Amino acid sequence: MSGFLGTIERVGNMVPHPAIIFFLLIAVVIVLSTIFGVLGTTVTYEGYDPALGDIVEQTASVRSLLSPDGIRFMLTSPVANFLGFTGVGVILVAMIGVGLAEESGLIAALVRKLVAAAPRSIFTFMIVMVGVMSSIAADAGYLVLVPLAAAAFHSMGRHPLAGLAAGFSGVAAVFLVNVFVTPTDALLVEVTNDAIRAVNPDAQISVVGNLFFMIASSILMGLICTVLTERFVEPRLGPYRGGVPVEASHGLSGSEQQGLRNAGRALLVFVAVVSLLTAPPLPWGILRNQETGGIMAGSPFMSALIVLISLLFLVVGYAYGRGAGTIANVTDAIGLIVKTWGNLAGMIFLLFVIANFIAFFNYTNLATVLAVNLADILQYAPIGRAGYIVLFVVVVAIIDIILTGALAKWAILAPVFVPLFMRLGGDPDLVIAAYRVGDSPMNVITPLNVYLAVMVGFARKYQKEAGIGTIVALMIPYTVTLLVLWTALLIGWTAFDLPLGPR
Predict the structure, then answer these.
(1) What's the confidence (pLDDT) of residue 250?
(2) CA 20 to 30 Å from 261, out of 4, 40, 151, 203?
(3) Burial class (CB in 10 A: 0-12, 13-18, 19+), 173
(4) Distance of alpha carbon 20 from alpha carbon 448, whole angstroms
(5) Residue 378 has what pLDDT?
(6) Whole-prediction pTM
(7) Which residues have CB under 8 Å from 117's CB, separation 6+?
(8) Quick check: 261 and 253 in contact, CB under 8 A?
(9) Tens digit of each residue's pLDDT (9 = 90 or more) over 269-310
(10) Phi–psi pair at 131, nearest 5 degrees
(11) What are the residues facing 61 on neighbouring strands?
């Protein structure tokens, strides 16, 4: 297996720059859309319409990018595609605060403090589990936890890419489960209930319908990712030849200790202010959902989470820098932020290409046609319930290669599979559980995950020649193992008729 993964890494890193790959993929999409557009390829299916909030019959036809409309779209939409690509804004906003915290020295000091305090026997598991729980904070785990995990492993004398793999596995490969209910769960349930009404207008499921399975999956998959990291991925990487940072072998200096004290005080003030805006009931809790009074689903607090996290790092990073002497004034702080954004130039160009590839691909409807046809294959497969679960997980995993958005896929698949499972005597909650299993593990290797390119950038800090092949080779063991063992867990769960969540 190690030789096989080494081959994948070498071959993957021999391919051109990721931007060139996506330019080639755009060319492939143009050709395929023209062929299937000329053939008049269409599919009709029942899908969820967010505008109507209901399941309606929809027809999708392959649209050619070389038609007059397609050419106009390619020439007029690139700027809008780039500006509308959420990954760009998330990265730039998050890096205002995270970048200042890193450049001021706060991140390095925190890592050394963490390494000194954390029990080494459970350190990897802690990293993975924080990654699993970070899904409640949208994309923050990718930008904060993963580089922090790599830096922490480096400071401990362990291979930093093993830390990156551990953090990335928790954040992305176990993405759709958590020990808490997340906003994504509410959206999945909303789509599912509309699909349920096609069979039983009086039936519905709740947002905690998968809670028991989610908690068990979070812990067990976290343990599996930990074992894979320590027993397979890290030994395969071997000892890190870049050495341990000099400062990691020494205690914190007096100025660094003062910086951390300043950062701690700033953290308390920040948390107090956010709590005063969030904790009180309406009307004083202005960051609560102004209709329901809730803090989680649909609240300004959750919508502002990336901005709040960036502000948090900005405040504590500045406080640390003033105490440690790495920042003299606000002008210095702005200079560090500009430096951080300057380092993102290559990534921003790559995101421009990726954003337009995804927009062109979505315009053609090729993904929808493929997803619906794969769903039809599963719908008419003559197998039992356990077989349906396995086949459904495989279909979701395949679709995730070309359609990464969890909600976008579910809006297409739920109207087909929820009624199907119900007619077979299955629980709609079981379909969502199987969807979580199939969707999550593929996130760490699909080329359409924008954060795969971000991981390459993080990896190059420690291994200059790292490329897409490096990350894919690192993460394939997690994808394969989680798909097999997680599916087995779900089948065993149903075989013993265990409740997926509170009844």
Answers:
(1) 60
(2) 151
(3) buried
(4) 14
(5) 65
(6) 0.75
(7) none
(8) no
(9) 999 999 999 998 888 889 998 888 888 667 888 778 788 888
(10) -65, -45
(11) 42
Q: State the Cα–Cα distance between residues 331 and 334, nearest whole angstrom.
A: 5
The alpha helices in 279-329, defined as continuous H runs, are: 300-303, 305-324
Measured between alpha carbons, how far is 491 from 486 in angstroms, rounded to an integer?
9
CB of 355 within 8 A of CB of 86?
no
Q: Which two tokens stand for residue 214?
A: 């989610």
332: its two tokens = 């210095």
Cβ count near 295 (within 10 Å): 15
DSSP character at residue 251? P
Strands (E), 226-369: none
pLDDT at 241: 85
**Residue percentage of the chain with pLDDT more than 70:** 91
Chain-centre distance of CA 86, in angstroms?
13
Question: From CA 162, how far away is CA 237, in angstroms rounded?
Answer: 8
What band does 115 get if pLDDT is binned at 50, 70 and 90?
Answer: low
In degrees and rounded to multiples of 5, residue 234 shows phi and psi of -65, -45
How deeply is 423 buried, as exposed, middle or buried, from its count of CB atoms within 10 A (0-12, 13-18, 19+)?
Answer: exposed
Assigned token pair, 227: 């074992």
